Amino acid sequence: MVELKTDTSIDAMYEAGQVVGRALTAVRDAADVGVSLLELDEVAHDVLREAGAGSPFLGYRPSFAPTPFPAVICASVNDAIVHGIPTAYRLRDGDLVSIDCGAELGGWAGDSAISFVVGRARPADVRLVETAERALAAGIGAAVVGNRVGDIAHAIGTVCRAAGYGIPEGFGGHGIGRRMHEDPPVPNEGRPGRGLRLRHGMALAIEPMLIGGGTDGYHEAPDGWTLRTNDGSRAAHAEHTVAITDAGPRILTAR
Questions:
Q1: Cα–Cα 20 to 30 A to 22, which of 39, 75, 98, 123?
Q2: What is the CATH number of the domain that holds 28?
Q3: Is residue 2 part of a domain?
Q4: Residue 192 — φ and ψ, nearest 5°?
Q5: Could you give the number of structural domains in the chain?
């Protein structure tokens, strides 16, 4: 069931989204060669605490997970696509890092992700990250009243495939509101004109995930959470929480 949010509720979601945006900015600013993923998790945790916000990630345990998630961010490095658990791993020059973060504030959730390179960036990694951001922008651009979920999926997939990148099947965006994961699912590839029609008051987390090697294959790491590319190529992830409004898409996690 899809819950349509009131304009007041969307404003409240914006407040939660701004906490997420501040946390991601703080993590990106703190990320440097020699900094550990656990230290980045603590940076984000500090931002949430200062805002009086909770984390929808910490303790989250979906049906596939062997254990509750132990952190407030997902930190996915190089060939990790999404859901990376922060560890004592210390960042190295040239690492491609994807950080996903959520916040719960006033009964509403926000969810967003960024990818960036630590230190000296390889041109291929810069292109991968830029394409993830372009795919996200294309998906948001299709998130207008009267369109369908398939239009968002098609917009994202078109950008990714045109650049020669793979897309992990079965993983994508989702509805969001009082909980981090709500209906409807928002795939990263699909046919235009298909799926649920978009209406004022819907809120979606739109999140393209790209596999740099061009294949779609991935596997689950031994931790039961992290998804890694089968070909060992690098991956990028970008995400915003977006409200569908009569005035156009409203990005609630803008940084």
A1: 123
A2: 3.90.230.10
A3: no
A4: -65, 150
A5: 1
pLDDT of residue 193: 98
Q: Of 208, 214, 202, 207, whose CA–CA distance to 243 is shortest? A: 202
Q: What is the pLDDT of residue 64?
A: 86
Give the range of the structural domain holding residue 164, as residue numbers without chain letter: 7-251
Residue numbers in the known binding site are 83, 100, 111, 174, 181, 207, 239
Task: Give the containing element (helix H, strand E) for 141.
Answer: helix 123-141
Note the pLDDT of residue 156.
98
**pTM, entire model:** 0.97
- Predicted confidence at residue 180, as pLDDT, reads 97
**Residue 178 maps to a domain:** yes
Task: Let me know: does 236 contact 131? Beta carbons within 8 Å.
Answer: yes
Positions of the chain with pLDDT under 70: none
Contact 57, 72 (CB under 8 A): yes
- Stretch (H or E) spanning 61: none
Q: Annotated binding site for a divalent metal cation: which residue ranges?
A: 100, 111, 174, 207, 239
Give the residue numbers of the binding site for substrate: 83, 181
**CB-CB contact of 129 with 35 (8 Å):** no
Q: What is the pLDDT of residues 40-64, one digit of tens each?
A: 999 999 999 999 999 999 999 998 8
